[in-house]
Design a protein that fits this description.
Chain lengths: 113, 114
């Protein structure tokens, strides 16, 4: 069975601070895909970043960066120079090779001005 | 519209009634997902279609829940004999291509069972 754990329920930062959201996953598959989605107060989930299980290269895309480590089964997501508009619930998700999805319970990020 | 749409946006029903929730995916997307999201939790996987067939329905909680996608586009989630515990936001998402592609989510249907 697959499992995604987001240990941080809520995080509060002041604008312009960097913030890292943690995600730990469990799967027996060797091929899987990891995603981060954002759910703003309006409610609709929006895709942010993804990584497949064979590519541990960490990347930066604008203010977003991610750190994927298979050795610790972690897929952490960092927002640099946070902004008030970043306030939302962030979900980490694992998709197996057959397409089944497992989401974590989310981390609520509040960015204060 | 270009995105995933869901109707109705809100549904209030009484315990024991039957409800249908509709999802219109992005045109051309072969994969379609249904999720249930309760307050303070992440989307809970219910069922996943690849084309017209259910590729994985292991998340359906019991036999009161059923979903169809007869022509490989629009999907309907059907709930019989609704219970108060079925109250939640039901999300639909569609995806084109491989499982590595992102899912596009609809706005959800908020179901309230009185």
């Amino acid at each position: 069975a697959q499992k995604v754990t987001q240990a941080q329920t809520e995080i509060s930062v002041v604008e312009k601070e960097d913030v890292t959201l943690d995600c730990v996953y469990e799967t027996r598959d060797t091929t899987y895909y990891l995603f981060w989605y954002k759910q703003p107060p309006s409610g609709e989930l929006v895709f942010l970043i993804r990584r497949n299980s064979f590519d541990e290269q960490n990347e930066i895309s604008g203010r977003y960066s991610w750190n994927f480590q298979k050795s610790t089964s972690s897929f952490n997501f960092t927002i640099t120079a946070s902004q008030v508009v970043d306030s939302a619930v962030y979900f980490c998700a694992l998709i197996d090779s057959a397409g089944k999805s497992t989401f974590g319970d989310g981390t609520t990020l509040t960015v204060k001005p | 519209g270009a995105g995933v749409s869901q109707t109705p946006s809100n549904k209030v029903t009484e315990k024991g009634k039957y409800v249908e929730l509709r999802c219109d995916p992005i045109s051309g997307h072969t994969a379609l997902y249904w999720y249930r999201q309760s307050l303070g939790q992440g989307p809970e996987f219910l069922i996943y279609f690849q084309g017209t067939g259910a590729a994985d329905d292991s998340g359906l909680p019991n036999d009161r829940f059923f979903a169809v996608r007869p022509e490989g586009s629009v999907s309907t989630l059907k709930i019989q004999r609704t219970e108060r515990g079925d109250s939640a936001v039901y999300l639909c998402a569609s995806r084109g291509g491989s499982s590595y592609n992102e899912q596009f989510f609809g706005p959800g249907t908020r179901l309230t069972v009185l």
